[in-house]
Design a protein that fits this description.
284 residues, mainly alpha
Amino acid sequence: MNAHWRTFKVASWLGWEMDSNWTEPWLFVVYSIVKPVAGAFILVFMYVVIVAINQFPDPDYFAYLYVGNSFFVFVAATLFGTFQVIQADREWYQTIRYVYISPISYYVYILGRAISKVLVAAFAVIITLVFGVAFLNLQIEFSLTALPTFIASLVLGLGSLLAIGICLASVSFLTARHTHGLAEGLPGVFYVFCGVLFPLAILPPWGQALGLSIPLTYWFEITRRTLTPYTSDIDPTLAGYSDTTILLILFLSTLAFIGLSIAVYRAGEYFARKAGKIDMTTSY
């Protein structure tokens, strides 16, 4: 366990150094602030278009849209950051053979490298929410009694994201660059079917069933209940579920995806070693 913790800690530090050393610290901070603010303006434009179509404003729906999209920042950043580890070490820096044969868990190493992306995404989420409250009249009704629920859902949601990211990374053991499409396309699937942009209730039955099979759906639902409880009537799909039930479903589905990630990782690692592709380079 101590070895895994040291691996995770050092890999996290390495990931942060790699993500933040491309410019001066002050410019990195400015970039980290401007990017989520620009994303907030995109959300405003999307809401304006929806209002123009419906012919009347709906502040509750704006809060539903805004909070969902704010936390969706975690999805793209975490999935891309996790998947990119193997490709970066193998193709760009050509260091994977040295890291892989070292006496560490490479699975834990990938998780550590992805944490820097999670931290940057967390900063972007905070900036987006603060900007919404300060300038867009977003009403956050957060109470201290909801804090344990919020923290638990955040940990479980990020855990499921990291597990899905590990599955993508494991596929990249055997491919050159084709998992780029998966890493960019899979968040699009989550965006449509996890209730980020619009309620699950407007989807066809098969779309609702697909959304309910993804743990992120329950994460976004419980997040909205803790931050903007007045939006709970917008999507009746999970209205009959209590907070405890949703957390339990999120917990069980996260465990299932973690187990799946371990199985996929071991399979990808096994076949890559058998085919001699662990340190394969394609000049990409």
